[in-house]
Design goal:
67% of the residues lie in helices and 6% in strands. It is mainly α and 394 residues long. The chain folds into two domains: 2-42 and 196-386, no CATH class; 48-176, D-Maltodextrin-Binding Protein, domain 2 (3-Layer(aba) Sandwich). Helix 3 crosses helix 6 (125-154) and helix 12 packs antiparallel against helix 15. The longest helix has 30 residues, at 125-154.
């Protein structure tokens, strides 16, 4: 068995030394990973600046600006009124707010107060968002002022401190138990798919590249058979079954090299899971790599030329990728669901999805793992029966 490992080790070293294979097997997945991270991996965030001239300086104006600064992604820059006008005239900024004198007094008296918006054009998307946020805060302040005035009117003899305490208690209760709650419901067809498209795409990309790289490795076996390399290897003390096992382990080794790089980036950069999830994902990747390696040996056995091996590998991989639910859910019924059951991708992606997200363990995904592992064993047995060392069929 040690000779089989040596054959596998030589094949993996040759893979690493070949710039073309290394670019396709390692560099391309890393590049796509970086692209996926930029498009899907980052959390949506908002950053904007509110340019404000406070001509009031009162309690309510200060409270409005303090609440505005506490909003995530919003910063407040204060101006004197002439400086704000100058910045707008120079188009240094496109949107500004003015809190006029008497703003606090109007709110305290229950009189409508105003916030002036100075804008060039539409002010830009960020300015419109900040305007909406500021209007919401101003409306809250107005509501609190009305409540305070109402409580004071009902208890005219109550000290102002007691009125403020009662109003603050009512406001705190209203925030803790709002009269209207907004809930987000996922419309995903499969509750296990997760709410994030990236959570499904990551396992799909891992499985797709494992299949592509390993099955395309069938070309190497076809080339070695045509130029007599496999026969010359058997002229040594290497036995046929050791050569076969070595080629199988070579495919598994190439696949694991890719998988560990891809999983390492996902777990370190995106923090998609903890150490246990990484170990389980790596173990699952080894099972998928074994299935892909067995499939590559079958392709190498039936293909007569390198071109045939390439076309067969591309066709099988693309069929499994498209119909296995790599880029979109296949649903629980219909023609797509039926086709997906004839692919390794469906079972491997479902298993990866649960393990990476932490929603399941390898034991929980035993059915999917059994299918993928069974495919590896069946494929290995079939490949051994038809595996040829020479072009004459030996």
């Amino acid at each position: 068995m040690s000779r089989a490992f040596l054959v596998a080790l030589i094949g993996v070293k040759r893979f690493i030394a070949d710039r073309g294979d290394l670019a396709f097997g390692i560099a391309l997945p890393i590049a796509l990973f970086a692209l996926m991270t930029g498009v899907f991996g980052g959390e949506a965030s908002f950053n904007g600046t509110a340019h404000v001239a406070d001509l009031d300086g009162g309690r309510a104006a200060s409270e409005l600006l303090e609440r505005l600064e506490r909003v995530d992604g919003v910063s407040v820059r204060r101006y004197a009124k002439p400086d704000l006008d100058d910045a707008l005239d120079r188009s240094a900024i496109l949107n500004g707010f003015v809190l006029p004198a008497g703003f606090t007094a109007s709110l305290d008296a229950g009189i409508p107060a105003e916030v002036r918006i100075l804008r060039r054009g539409n002010g830009g998307d960020a300015a419109q968002i900040i305007t909406a946020i500021l209007q919401g805060i101003a409306a809250d302040l107005a509501s609190e002022s009305r409540i305070r005035n109402g409580v004071a009117a009902l208890a005219p003899d109550a000290p102002p401190q007691r009125v403020d305490a009662a109003v603050q208690r009512l406001i705190t209760d209203a925030r803790a138990n709002p009269p209207v709650r907004v809930e987000t419901q996922s419309l995903s067809e499969d509750p296990d798919d997760g709410d994030d498209f990236f959570s499904r795409l990551l396992p799909g990309m891992i499985v797709m590249f494992l299949l592509f790289s390993i099955t395309l490795g069938a070309q190497t076996i076809v080339e070695e058979r045509r130029n007599g390399t496999l026969e010359r290897l058997l002229s040594t003390r290497l036995r046929p079954w050791e050569l076969f096992a070595g080629k199988f382990l070579e495919g598994v080794g190439r696949g694991m090299l890719q998988a560990l790089v891809f999983l390492g980036l996902a777990f370190v950069v995106l923090r998609v899971g903890g150490p246990l999830a990484f170990v389980q994902s790596a173990a699952l990747a080894a099972i998928v790599a074994a299935s892909a390696s067995a499939l590559a040996l079958i392709i190498a056995a039936v293909a007569r030329t390198q071109d045939q091996a390439s076309w067969i590998a591309v066709f099988i991989t693309m069929f499994m990728t498209v119909f296995g639910g790599t880029f979109f859910p296949v649903g629980d019924s219909g023609a797509l669901n039926i086709l997906s059951r004839f692919t390794l991708n469906k079972y491997a992606i479902d298993a990866f999805d649960g393990v990476i997200s932490g929603a399941a363990t390898l034991a929980d995904r035993w059915a999917e793992i059994a299918v993928v592992g069974g495919a590896a064993i069946a494929g290995l047995a079939a490949a051994r029966l038809i595996f040829r060392v020479s072009s004459e069929g030996k």
